[in-house]
Amino acid sequence: MAEKTPVRVVLVDDHEVVRQGLRTLLEATGGVEVVSEAGSVAEAVRRVGYDTPDVVVMDVRLPDGSGISACREIRSRWPDIKVLILTSYADEGALVDAIQAGAAGYVLKRIRADELVKSIRRVADGESLLDPMMTERLFEKIRGTGDTDPILGRLSPQERRILDYISSGLTNKQIAEQMFLAEKTVKNYVSNMLGKLEMSRRSEAAAYAARISVGRHSQYPAEGWDEEGG
Predict the structure, then answer these.
(1) What angle do CA 176, 179, 185 make, to 5 degrees?
(2) How much is the pTM?
(3) Which residues, in sequence order, are CB contacts of 38 under 8 Å at separation 6+?
(4) In this predicted model, what pLDDT tens digit does every residue of 42-63 receive, in sequence order?
């Protein structure tokens, strides 16, 4: 029986030591051939065009943009090439963005070495692969959207994500880093969000969102506490 052709892989990560470690790990299996490496979006697109891999293993955060935008461009130019997002960030929004960009898989860097190799092979074979914990968390959020507060319901999904980050205490700059957006874009989103909520300060919006969250998860109605003087 003939040996299966190795899966041709391009590694994309801005840390050289990470790429070297992944190359050593993958090539030791004998079923994967790392044909090239890249440390940026521009270099990733260029290397994929030169080397025509089967799978691109792509980090999300890169110095000149996001791996998700690189994935979108690669899939647009070369639809037969699969992209597996490999990241440290368990962000449901990034997961959704990756799926919309055409990624075949989204796994976290805590994955075991043997599971990563299996994931690459499965993606190369045409399977869709998502981190199970993140997928479950995402479905829980989707299932819970039916009881959304009518005021918060005015917000777009992107604005709702930004409000969640504001409620967690993140600055516009930190939100921009999390969402792979320009800081100015986040500022515009915040202004639009406050306008829809008819509020003037981000702290006011964050406090409102926090009250809604507490009320939704409490077994007692908020009015009851007021009547008791609590």
Answers:
(1) 50
(2) 0.62
(3) 10, 11, 12, 44, 46, 47
(4) 999 999 999 999 999 999 989 9
